[in-house]
Design brief:
CATH architecture: 3-Layer(aba) Sandwich
Strand content: 15-25%
Oligomer: single chain
Order of helices and strands: EHEHEHEHHE
CATH class: Alpha Beta
Structural class: alpha/beta
Radius of gyration: 14 Å
CATH topology: Rossmann fold
Largest sheet: 5 strands, parallel
Number of helices: 5
Distance between the termini: 30 Å
Length: 127
């Protein structure tokens, strides 16, 4: 598989850091590029969104990998899965929720894995 065009959803938190770093590893190996995506839902501010994708762009400069910043609005899982046809792979983080919390909140990563048309790599946060 050729992972030239990589989508990396981010919320700016440490929970996505491991996934972002893994995406840069893949991009460097494949000579690819990354699109950093922040999906704004009802509680998100423009400043938070801009800061989150900017962090990925700054890492791109360090890794020597081109990064495009995108900010979209809507349900994160639906937006990410809906964009999947534009990319070779999605690399995303997860909170690693289990049990009752997962039932209440749901898993964006799980929904994306089920609905995306491209491969999805889910990277758990390392302690």
């Amino acid at each position: 598989m050729d992972f030239q065009n990589i989508l990396v959803p981010t919320d700016g938190s440490d929970n996505t850091r491991a996934a972002i770093e893994k995406a840069f590893e893949l991009a460097r190996i494949a000579g690819g590029r990354i699109t950093a995506l922040y999906v704004k839902d009802k509680g998100s501010s423009d400043g938070t969104a801009s800061s989150a994708v900017s962090k990925v762009s700054q890492l791109g400069e360090q890794y020597g990998v081109p990064v495009e910043e995108r900010i979209e609005s809507g349900s994160p899982a639906a937006v990410i899965a809906g964009m999947s046809s534009e990319f070779d792979v999605i690399v995303m983080g997860t909170l690693g929720r289990t049990g009752f919390k997962k039932v209440l909140v749901g898993s964006v990563a799980e929904t994306v894995v089920k609905n995306a048309v491209c491969p999805v790599i889910v990277v758990r946060k390392t302690e």
